[in-house]
């Protein structure tokens, strides 16, 4: 249970709270010792569930390809999902997986985007970036940018309309998506139409109320968050020498970024940094769609997909993505 130093938190949604006890029993607290098992469990999707059929019963082609990585660094692997029956160039969804900067792979979470491909409205490219702590910053975000740049340069070959290129990620992937969008803006390529940041991991400083309010509760508490950021940044975490591409909450100038969708649960460590980032984006002239879901813990929309609040959150995000990918 939280100790007396833990800031007060809102209650969990009643339906979600009923799931938490069983979920926490399955979680491996992140550590150097548990990383191999955690990585094996999350490489292809949600732990304890069968690997998703990315072909959607034959409506989607699945291709894995090695593409150029950052200058002087190894190639990166991407998985490419394309509609079998495409009616001309489609929107490009560039996907960056979550996993606290330390776990996950190119197929983690990508099944949520398959319906847009199966309907012929999108092409998905999902990137395999190098993981911390073996590969600390800037390796992960530079891998993500390299994959995005390759996608944009090969848009015609992939069947992507370059005017509808969207970066999307959840959790650590949301933070990396935000950092990749900043790199694309600052390097002048490519032009993104939207960024979709799902409960993103944005701020290594861990100074907000919400970053401290979960201790042994939820699915990603302050101890796990400290481990993830320290794996990425080492002794630089929380100090003055952290790039905004690694921790986008540190970016001083947010002007010129694409239209942004942000969502977050009210009972997760990332809540306050997401709310602040949304406010600062809006103040910088960026069009922002922000949704905070009452009682939601980190990842509630996937882990508790059957609950009312999860259904509402997924429907809202789906509606935004469908508008974003329209011709």
Describe the structure.
The protein has eleven helices and eight strands. It is globular. The longest helix has 18 residues, at 308-325. With 327 residues, the chain is of the alpha/beta class. It has a single domain (14-325), classed as Alpha/Beta hydrolase fold, catalytic domain (Rossmann fold). It has helices at residues 14-26, 35-42, 114-118, 139-153, 155-158, 172-187, 209-212, 222-233, 271-283, 300-303, 308-325, and strands spanning 60-67, 76-83, 90-96, 122-128, 160-170, 194-198, 259-265, 288-293.
Distance between the termini: 50 Å
Sheet with most strands: 8 strands, mixed
**How many β-strand stretches?**
8
Backbone shape: globular
* CATH third-tier fold name: Rossmann fold
Biggest β-sheet: strands ordered side by side in the sheet: 1-2-4-3-5-6-7-8
Mean model confidence by pLDDT: 95
Helix proportion: 25-40%
Architecture, CATH level 2? 3-Layer(aba) Sandwich
Key attributes of the depicted protein:
Rossmann fold, single chain, eight-stranded mixed sheet, alpha/beta, 327 residues, globular
């Amino acid at each position: 249970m939280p100790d007396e130093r833990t800031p007060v938190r809102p209650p969990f949604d009643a339906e979600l709270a009923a799931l938490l006890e069983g979920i926490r029993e399955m979680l491996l607290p992140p550590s150097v010792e548990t990383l191999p098992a955690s990585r094996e469990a999350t490489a292809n999707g949600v732990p304890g569930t069968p690997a998703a059929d990315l072909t959607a019963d034959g409506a989607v082609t699945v291709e894995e390809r090695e593409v150029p990585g950052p200058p002087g660094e190894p190639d990166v692997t991407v998985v490419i999902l394309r509609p079998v029956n495409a009616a001309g160039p489609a929107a490009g969804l560039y996907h960056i997986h979550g996993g606290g900067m330390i776990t996950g792979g190119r197929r983690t979470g990508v099944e949520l985007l398959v319906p847009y491909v199966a309907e012929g409205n999108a092409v998905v490219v999902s990137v395999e970036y190098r993981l911390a702590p073996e590969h600390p910053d800037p390796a992960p975000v530079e891998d993500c940018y390299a994959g995005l740049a390759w996608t944009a340069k090969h848009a015609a070959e992939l069947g992507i309309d370059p005017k509808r290129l969207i970066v999307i990620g959840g959790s650590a992937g949301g933070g990396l998506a935000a950092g990749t969008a900043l790199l694309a803006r600052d390097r002048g390529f490519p032009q993104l139409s939207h960024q979709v940041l799902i409960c993103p991991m944005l701020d290594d400083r861990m100074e907000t109320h919400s970053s401290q309010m979960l201790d042994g509760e939820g699915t990603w508490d302050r101890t796990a968050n400290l481990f993830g950021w320290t794996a990425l940044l080492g002794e630089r975490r929380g100090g003055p020498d952290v790039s905004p591409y690694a921790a986008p909450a540190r970016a001083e100038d947010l002007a010129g970024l694409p239209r942004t969708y942000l969502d977050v649960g009210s009972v997760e460590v990332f809540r306050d940094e997401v709310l602040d980032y949304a406010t600062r984006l809006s103040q910088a002239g960026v069009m922002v769609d922000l949704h905070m879901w009452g009682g939601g813990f980190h990842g509630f929309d996937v882990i508790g997909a059957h609950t009312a609040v999860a259904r509402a959150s997924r429907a809202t995000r789906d509606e935004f993505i469908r508008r974003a990918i329209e011709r």
